[in-house]
Design goal:
This is 3-oxoacyl-[acyl-carrier-protein] synthase 2. The chain is α+β, with helices and mostly antiparallel strands. The chain folds into two domains: 6-250, 3-Layer(aba) Sandwich (Peroxisomal Thiolase, Chain A, domain 1), CATH 3.40.47; 262-412, Peroxisomal Thiolase, Chain A, domain 1. It contains 13 helices and 13 strands. It has a nine-stranded mixed beta sheet with strand order 4-5-6-1-7-13-12-8-9, sandwiched between helices. Helix 3 crosses helix 6 (143-152) and helix 10 packs across helix 11 (312-324).
Length: 415
């Protein structure tokens, strides 16, 4: 790989805490929860009745017309919205760009679950001739990347990586790698998810993976607290614009941060459980540091995967201590923002990278809320309950997925 530097010049967010990056960040810093009783479906027959839903979202302004928006699955609607917002935020002018030098990598962990459910019901009740001809293009996970590129007219590298909850980080990290090789100057990258649906809710629920704190939705997601009982599903999209540094500098772009390192490993351990000692996750963070040519003590903040599961939270904690050594207990700040957003699955890494970037910009660490009784094994500073002013020069964001997928991205303040 070349020594090309890759920076972030645009950010787009649609989340349970707000349908733009500014509302998202304001509510995150305020310690506000976006988790509530599910409104989009009848949950009477379901054990879990809570989630982090995107509310008051109108996809129409992000498409060419109402019909086009209606023919897009919700995950794609969210992806298009975040991508359009990120590109606008970057200040780029698509007419002045070489379309062969601009690529798109926006993935999804599950894809068009809503479309699959509704069309399968039509198949069963009305027969195969009534199934929509748009079923396949609406449900496939790569449709977001393909159609975002089509909308903009960008003909550079285009793909969709699906690695469960590591999806966003892998798409962003591999886009970074493509740019490092010199195959693109600009990449739109991230993830989107919209799986708060009957299949999603029952599937995760029957795995006993979800919190059942239905009477207290805002207090249900509680990373590292002794009362944690599972994660809370969320939906949304987080997308960034990656740009080669000299390209951004030449046009006078506002640069949020430099994407300095990326790590990717596999646990090769279990279908859903992480390695108990966090070996794969630790090696993943080590790789991101190595790519960035940084020492562990150069990192100010870790936005942890921290889903609020009894096993996963502690496995990640062990991984962090393995990578950061004594510094983990003496200076490193860590927080779990899923305590406020819920777990956006394939979109999680996108919005959590945005949070990490804003932490550098504003010199403030978003909190881990709902920490009432800290797990005795937790001996790092998880910034409990209240945001904190701090010197933040570099931040690392972790995302781990079913199947043992580990991904870490490292951003730093631009020199």
């Amino acid at each position: 790989m070349t020594e090309r530097r890759i920076v972030i010049t645009g950010i787009g967010v649609v989340s349970p805490l707000g349908n733009n990056k500014d509302d998202f960040w304001k509510n995150l810093v305020a310690g506000k929860s976006g988790i509530r009783r599910i409104q989009s479906m009848d949950t009477e027959k379901y054990d879990c009745k809570i989630a982090g839903e995107v509310v008051d979202f109108d996809p129409t302004p992000f498409f060419n017309n109402h019909k086009e928006a209606r023919r897009a699955d919700r995950f794609f609607q969210l992806a298009m919205a975040a991508s359009k917002m990120a590109f606008k935020d970057s200040g780029l002018n698509q007419d002045s760009l070489d379309p062969w030098r601009v690529g798109v990598m926006v993935g999804s962990g599950i894809g068009g679950l809503s479309t699959i459910e509704t069309q399968y019901e039509i198949l069963l009740n009305k027969g195969p001739n009534r199934v929509s001809p748009f079923l396949i293009p609406m449900m496939i996970t790569n449709i977001a990347s393909g159609m975002i590129a089509t909308d903009f007219g960008f003909m550079g590298p285009n793909m969709c990586i699906t690695t469960a909850c590591a999806t966003s980080n892998n798409n962003i990290g591999e886009a970074w790698r493509i740019m490092k090789f010199g195959d693109a100057d600009i990449m739109i990258a991230g993830g989107a998810e919209a799986s708060i649906r009957p299949c999603g809710l029952s599937g995760f629920g029957n795995m006993k993976a979800l919190s059942m704190r239905n009477d207290e939705p805002e207090r249900a997601s509680r990373p590292w607290d002794t009362g944690r009982d599972g994660f809370v599903m969320g939906e949304g999209s987080g997308v960034v614009v990656l740009e080669e540094y000299e390209h951004a500098k030449k046009r006078g772009a506002t640069i949020y941060a430099e994407l300095a390192g990326y790590g990717v490993t596999a646990d090769a351990y279990h279908l859903t459980a992480p390695h108990p000692e966090g070996l794969g996750a630790s090696k993943c963070m080590d790789m991101a540091l190595r790519h960035a040519k940084m020492n562990p003590t150069d990192v100010s903040y870790v936005n942890a995967h921290a889903t609020s599961t009894p096993v996963g939270d502690l496995c990640e904690l062990r991984a962090i201590k393995r990578t950061f050594g004594g510094y983990a207990q003496k200076g490193l700040l860590v927080s779990g923002t899923k305590s406020m957003t819920g777990h956006l699955l394939g979109a999680a890494g996108g919005i959590e990278l945005a949070a990490s970037i804003f932490a550098i910009r504003d010199q403030i660490i978003p909190p881990t809320i709902n920490v009432e009784n800290l797990d005795p094994e937790v001996d790092v500073d998880i910034v409990p309950n209240v945001a904190r002013q701090a010197k933040v020069t570099a931040a690392l964001s972790n995302s781990f997925g079913f199947g043992g997928h580990n991904s870490s991205v490292l951003v730093k303040k631009v020199d």
